[in-house]
Amino acid sequence: MMRDMTRRQFGKTVAATAALANVAIPEKLPGQSVAVGQSLEFPKGFVWGCATAAYQIEGAANEDGRKPSIWDVFADTPGKTNNGDTGDVADDSYHLYKEDTLLLKNLGVGAYRLSISWPRIFPEGKGQPNAPGLDHYKRVLDDLQANGVTPYITLFHWDLPAALEGGWQSRDTAKAFADYAGYVAGQLSDRVQHFMTINEFDSFTNLGYKTGVFAPGLKLPAAEVNQVRHNALLAHGLGMEAIRASAPAAQVGLAENPTSFVPVIEDEANIKAAQRATREENAAFLTAVLEGKYTEAYLEREGGNAPRVQPGDMKAIGSPIDFLGLNIYGPSYVRADDSAQGYAIVPRQASYPHMASPWIAVGPEVLYWGVRNVSELWNPKAIYITENGCSADDVMTADGRIEDTDRVMYLRNHLTHLHRATSGGLPVKGYFVWSLLDNFEWADGYSKRFGIHYVDFKTQKRTAKLSAKWYREAVRRNAVV
Ligand code: FCB
Questions:
Q1: Cα–Cα distance list, 461 to 80, 100, 103, 319, 400 (Å)
Q2: Which residue's alpha carbon is at the smallest distance from atom 10 of ligand 1?
Q3: CA torsion 116→118→119→122, rounded to 10°?
Q4: Which residues form the pocket of ligand 1, taking CB atoms under 6 Å from any ligand atom?
Q5: Are 330 and 363 in contact (CB under 8 A)?
Q6: What confidence score (pLDDT) does residue 163 get?
Q7: pLDDT level of residue 411 (50, 70, 90 thresholds)
Q8: Number of Cβ atoms within 10 Å of the Cβ of 341
Q9: What separation in Å is there between the alpha carbon of 104 and the centre of ligand 1?
Q10: 450 Cα nearest atom in ligand 1
Q11: How far is the centre of ligand 1, averaged over its atoms, from the C-alpha of 431 (Å)?
Q12: Cβ(106)–Cβ(148) under 8 Å?
């Protein structure tokens, strides 16, 4: 029957069905006379926010005593970033932070996830703190507070001070991080309640030290990569302890990007497979943090290349967290399998759709499953989606609009599946869009725009895209719109 329908007829039928669905459940908005479809509302008090990171937005690379991070060095090395782009100026948010606060205020979001630049606070990575660097963040935080926006602070979003010898290959870097994290938390705990130690272990260790696509651009053998990963975990663990000591009232967690698995079919066997894969495929990072140990299967897999662990390391790494931040962009599909591990990862077909960045496969159900898998495995007290968003080929029309309907589609569908998680009682407390504004997208430089505000990098003018207007409405109604 379908075969006989033209595409046009098919379209009409779908539209008629959708129209019927809307008519069946009309709902009027306060102050509006038009009926809209039934809205998917989030729980009262749900936190709405936007996220950024220091090196991606601040610019002011040499100001107020800041010294280079490994990203300055990497971006200055010919051939490492698209078009040779650097974060020297970026969005110039170091100077324009008040404008950016106003963007948040106009969106109506209550929260802003931003990161602190370690080389502004300790230009040499350790030793004497640099007061002007810290003063900058105090001003930013005061401005946020004056505008009713609550800060969520990331302490390490990849801009490692270049002066730290050996970088993440050195165990001493974990100790230096803890000293920095404890110091900053102590200094800012009067202004900040939520701290995240580290952003995305997987990205900066594997891309930085295994494939060499990110700073510092190394391609190390497996044993050394595993040691880098372990040092990063240790930094998180020692950082947790240091923050607890200097800011006892703070909520402390991390922002991690575990591989998030979607069962190919929602039945018992495949759902179990998704859980198993979540635990085992993330054994080097999230599983170690939440269980305080490396799984046996992981140690067996790595064999002689497994990380060297010192007494006390795993206890620190397994320090209880107050909340788990999840950065989720796209799904991995998994199915039940007869093998000993009980699951098999299903590769994406060549036709699988993606957003402007090829790595962002579109599978919005990942927001539900990403949350559900970790909840069922580890029962965290609270979960925030600390990043979700996409790049798009944004262009400004002659009359100054950016009509990023693809980004709206992406966000709307992801929030629909996040709503499934909250309505099913999973402990998701908030959601942060990546990103507040277009910025320096690491090795992609300025070629990939992730903002819900458009930035003209020549003039630094910010313009709300359609997605910003859409997000404002979602936040206002605390619902998918
Ligand atoms: C995440 C990073 C963030 C940004 C987005 C697009 O992996 O944490 O800084 O680059 O991807």
A1: 27, 11, 12, 43, 12
A2: 441
A3: 120
A4: 53, 56, 199-200, 203, 257, 327, 387, 434, 441-442, 450
A5: yes
A6: 98
A7: very high
A8: 12
A9: 19
A10: 6
A11: 15
A12: no
Q: Is 386 helix (H, G, I), strand (E, B) or coil?
A: strand
Ligand 1 centre distance from Cα of residue 52 (Å): 9
Distance, in Å, from the CA atom of 86 to the CA atom of 75, rounded to the nearest integer, reads 5
Are the C-beta atoms of 355 and 448 separated by less than 8 Å? no
β-sheet with 343-346: strand ranges across: 261-263, 332-336, 343-346
Dig out the tokens for 428 from the structure.
Answer: 């998701």
The mean pLDDT value of the chain amounts to 94
pLDDT tens track for 190-249? 999 999 999 999 999 999 999 999 999 999 999 999 999 999 999 999 999 999 999 999
Residue nearest to atom 4 of ligand 1 (CA): 441
Q: How many CA atoms lie within 13 A of 196 on its CB side?
A: 31
Please state the rounded mean pLDDT for residues 471-478.
98
Asked if residue 251 has pLDDT above 90, the reply is yes
Which atom of ligand 1 lies nearest, measured to the CA of 158? 9
3-state SS string for 126-175: CCCCCHHHHHHHHHHHHHHHHCCCEEEEEEECCCCECCCCCHHHCCHHHH
Distance 358 CA to ligand 1 centre (A): 14
Given ligand 1 and candidates 113, 198, 441, which is best to mutate, with the most ligand atoms within 8 Å of its CB? 441
Tell me the backbone φ, ψ of residue 241, rounded to 5 degrees: -65, -40
- What residues act catalytically? 200, 387
- Which pLDDT score is estimated for 32? 65
DSSP state of 465: -
Model confidence band, residue 481 (pLDDT cutoffs 50, 70, 90): very high
